[in-house]
Amino acid sequence: MSVSIRVTDVRKSYGDVRAVDGVSFEVNSGEFFGILGPNGAGKTTTLEIVEGLRQSDTGGVELLGESPWPRNPKLLPRIGVQLQGTAFFERLTAREQLHTFGSLYGVGPKRADEMLELVGLTEKAGTRVEKLSGGQAQRLSIACALVHDPELVFLDEPTAALDPQARRNLWDLLRAINETGRTVVLTTHYMDEAELLCDRVAIMDHGKILKIDTPAALVRGLDAPTRISVDSGNLSAADVTRVADGVAEVADDGAILTFTTRDPSTVLTALAEARVLNGLQVRGATLEDVFLELTGREYRA
Amino acid sequence: MKSYLSLSRAMLIGLFRDKTTLFFTLLFPLMFLVIFGAIFGGGSDTKPGKVIEIGDVAVLDNMAKADPDALKDLLEITKSSDEADAKQQVASGDAAAAIKQDGQTVTIYYSAADRTQAGIVTGILSGIVENTNLEMLKAAAPGTPTIAVTTDQVEDKALKPIQYLTPGLLGWAISMSGVFGAAMTLVTWRQKKTLRRIRLAPVSVGAVVGARVGNTLLLALIQMTVFLLVASLPFFGLTLTAFWWMAIPCVLIGALAFLAIGLLVGAVSKTSESASGLANLIILPLAFTSGSFFPLSQMPDWMQKISYVSPLRYLNEAMLDVMVRGEGPAAVLPNLGVLVVFGIVVGFIATRLFRWDDV
């Protein structure tokens, strides 16, 4: 597997603020790579340096074997970028928008129309971009980034400010894009998004990358307990003590009773025997727990 | 080339769908043409003064016999035999003057209520009487040298308001669309990150700027066409002189000079609000001091001096020269030279200050 992106010790400061503070990572070709972190973590600045929109203070970036800075026209047709915010030409319809971006890359209108279909906007072809919903605009923006069939796709918070259904639709689209063999780099502040989509995730905070691994490995590495919760009030105090005995910690907020345990089988069996599984939820650790573990604070997007 | 064309096209579609901008670049200046044309146009067409001829006034009758049309535009003469009624009409303002002749004496009755009208009419009547005297003198003593007065309006060769308003307001319209067009495109494209997105496409900066330049030039030509068509309607009555087509290069070069200002405004402004504020701050004073709304010659001295630093002055003057003053094609060269130099200097500063995005 060849390396598509190689970032070595990139730093960027604005005045006293170290926006990017020594970031290094590699992305393999065909990989779905995520940069996860709260707002202000330095994700966008990092991405912009990698895309060649900004110059780093120090450190090196190599995209497909080339340097993106200064503006490298040889590289531009090979990368597709969706910027935070939609970056459209004003007052154009969805189709005109794609045709315009297409022709900037020497791509014909037919391909542009295919892209419209790929992102499910054929019906909205004649709608002006200002009239598109948030999700539609994001999909169009992604279509614009893909219109010239780039090898490398950068997406900066593509699902920010979308409703849950629109997010789900977009996830399907992003997976499909990755499955065609393109390398995808995505920034997000949604933990679930990174967990669901990415092959590997870099967790970023305060301009630094804290850890890079597959979401599963990150969670496993945490060795966190499982949380089992059921409706509160079905169990007597004695039952609770018996179930939890020696294997779990208990928390009861009046509505939900939660057992935190490293031995979920024993707890679940005991609860099943007592026939009190109403409202059962079993949760392992998530990337949120990983973030908590890495930074010592709650994850707040 | 292809990306240049598609950028131009995208810009053009955006422009023609932007009703507000279209209004301000095409209709708004035309509204001024209509309003100013009506205000100033009405004022200059003074109606002939009403004069009541009491009984027979030989000087008037002889003149009317010799040349029936000579007085038609100047005086509206009605005959009356009732002297008291005639005086009453003058006193009440229904007539500007009454005139009566007793042998060698001509008496003109006028009222001081409308001094201007009375002055004009008595002046004309006195002139007629003097002329009669002169004729009589010539007949009595042929060969006596006499001094004749001929008058000829030189200042503007009958520059009716529409004649200076059309180039002036056209200049203003071009400066507005040039400055606003360039500044707004630059700022909104930067704000909406369209510029960054374009930067990530294999497109040269030349294609982006070129598309904007082409758009501005096209818009300026459309403005010129619309202005000339409307102003040439019989209602306005613009008459162009022989080399009016030399106004085309003036319009194009002027548009480029103002585009340069717009690029500068766009480069230093962060938001579209501040860009439009700054653009207004530049254009309005320029329009007032450069003869767009009023002829420069009617301006106070100090304002005329100020106008020398305004690029709009040179555009207006160049267009006035070839469109209505009847001067030859070469007359525009000094003015265009100033505009070219101005455009290059400002354009150079603008490119120095150009930013793809606001960090």
Automatic annotation (TrEMBL), chain A:
SUPFAM superfamilies: P-loop containing nucleoside triphosphate hydrolases
The keyword Transferase belongs to this UniProt entry's keyword annotation: no
A biological process from GO: response to antibiotic
Domain ABC transporter: 5-231
UniProt GO cellular component terms: plasma membrane
Predominant subcellular localization, coarse grouping: membrane
Assigned keywords, A-Z: Antibiotic resistance, ATP-binding, Cell membrane, Membrane, Nucleotide-binding, Translocase, Transport
UniProt-annotated location(s): Cell membrane
Pfam families (UniProt xref): ABC_tran
PROSITE patterns per record: ABC_TRANSPORTER_1, ABC_TRANSPORTER_2
Membrane-related topology note: Peripheral membrane protein
CDD domains, alphabetized: ABC_DR_subfamily_A (cd03230)
UniProt GO molecular function: ATP binding; ATP hydrolysis activity
PANTHER family listed in its UniProt record: ABC TRANSPORTER ATP-BINDING PROTEIN, ABC TRANSPORTER ATP-BINDING PROTEIN NATA
Sequence similarity: Belongs to the ABC transporter superfamily.
The protein, known as: ABC transporter ATP-binding protein
From TrEMBL, chain B:
Highest taxon of the lineage: Bacteria
Domain ABC transmembrane type-2 residue range list: 118-357
InterPro entries: ABC-2_transporter (IPR052902), ABC2_TM (IPR013525), ABC2_TM_bact-type (IPR047817)
Transmembrane parts of this sequence: 21-40, 169-189, 217-236, 242-265, 277-296, 332-354
UniProt GO cellular component terms: membrane
Membrane topology designation: Multi-pass membrane protein
One family name in Pfam for this protein: ABC2_membrane_3
Location within or outside the cell: Membrane
GO terms for MF: ABC-type transporter activity
Keywords: Membrane, Transmembrane, Transmembrane helix
PANTHER family tied to this protein: DOXORUBICIN RESISTANCE ABC TRANSPORTER PERMEASE PROTEIN DRRC-RELATED, TRANSPORT PERMEASE PROTEIN
Protein name in the entry: Transport permease protein
Species in which this protein is naturally found: Actinorhabdospora filicis
Lineage: Bacteria, Bacillati, Actinomycetota, Actinomycetes, Micromonosporales
